[in-house]
Amino acid sequence: MKKLADVYLNAQADRRLRAGHVWVYSNEIDGTRSPLRNFEPGQAVNIWSYRQECLGSGYINPHSLISVRRISKEPDQVLTVALLLQRLRSALTLRERLFKQPYYRWVYGEADGLPGLVIDRFGEVLAVQLTTAGMENLRALLLEALEQIMPECCIVLRNNSSIRQLENLPMYTEVARGVLPAEVLIEENGVRFSVEVLTGQKTGWFYDHRLNRQRFLSYVSGKRVLDLFSYTGAWGIQAAKGGASSVCCVDSSVPALEKVSYHAQLNGVSSQVNTLKGDAFEVLKMLKQDKQEFEVIVLDPPAFIKRKKDQGAGEIAYRRINQLAMALLSAEGILISASCSLPLSATNLLSIVNAASLATHHSLQVVEQGHQGPDHPIHPAIPETAYLKSLTCAVYRQ
Question: Is 280 helix (H, G, I), strand (E, B) or coil?
Fold first, then answer.
């Protein structure tokens, strides 16, 4: 086996790796012994502590803030087809134990031992994201491994994520293998949805809230439901199918709301579902002016805090949207407040929702707390793999 190039860390920069993390930041690399200019994006490397103890192997991108991602604690290890097959099959075995139907996140990056790789499965269609130079370099081997496991599958590369820009990678989307069906249907909690694999947000569907949406159905029977930031109606359509008397889905995207209407028709709940286009903050103000009330409100916005520098403004936005929503709740309403912002902790979200209730003269009880589903497993040493928070609150007027 060919020996890999060596990357040496600065003194004390090995603590994260020794604790089980897999990232090395560019400022943690000893620039004297390991000048970053000497490496190619995606190059396989061995990782050494300042005292010359081998910490494993991985791949490097000298142009990225996260410069090295470890793939093994063993030296001179690279992601061959055999190793890819082993880790892909291990991830698939877990998902097949969890879900009876073939609709799930098959690979969740570092949590599945495959940094820079995300795969969502929609039956026989795979939506694949390669987010790092190291994984992009392995594209041909990965496609070979996937074909060995699922010979009849269609593989769509959704390589248009903003994360790729951080790695100086080009943006592209293509059908890499097989034939993409005219319509890709999935089922979640007994409800059918059509997924835009080539053009939808991210990979076309958000599996992470699946179990939160399942529990949400306990609160909707016979109720008026408002689904804010609805996208294509994952919450709202399931609420209608679960017996809600009416559902209003709000989004700023016309194509997304057209898909809401299609999903309502697909599931036979068109009479219960209506859509409203607009900015969620402005729509809430308008509904308040019109003296509208809802018994259940879902707040599942996009990330208001994408980076640490957004923290202050993002927390204000979360508080504002929760306050505006509470003002529309009926006397004993249910609020589902969620956040996918990694820098916002579950504790911070709870504080924000509590502050919103005080500002609007409501009292609340948190009756459930949710997080991402089991097909988005959390690596115990990598806090970045735990991002989703959800609070189900019973809200009362004081």
Answer: helix
Q: What is the pLDDT of residue 32?
A: 96
Chain segment 61-91, per-residue pLDDT in tens:
999 999 999 999 999 999 999 999 999 999 9
Round to whole Å and give the CA distance between 69 and 23: 5
Q: Indicate which residue of 154, 248, 249, 340 is catalytic.
A: 340
Q: Which CATH superfamily is domain 81-184 in?
A: RNA methyltransferase domain (HRMD) like (3.30.750.80)
Q: For residue 382, which amino acid is it?
A: I
340 belongs to the catalytic site:
yes
Residue-range domain boundaries for the chain: 5-72, 81-184, 206-397
Work out the end-to-end distance of the chain between its first and last CA atoms, rounded to an integer number of angstroms: 71
Hey, what CATH class is 5-72 in?
mainly beta
Q: What is the CATH number of domain 206-397?
A: 3.40.50.150
E strands along the chain, which residues? Answer: 5-8, 23-25, 43-48, 54-60, 66-72, 103-108, 117-122, 125-130, 154-159, 172-177, 184-188, 191-195, 224-228, 246-251, 273-277, 294-299, 329-339, 362-371, 389-397
Asked, colleague to colleague, whether 81-184 and 206-397 share their fold, the answer is: no
Pairing between β-strand 246-251 and β-strand 273-277 as defined by DSSP bridges: parallel
Q: Tokens 């249910």 label which residue? A: 334
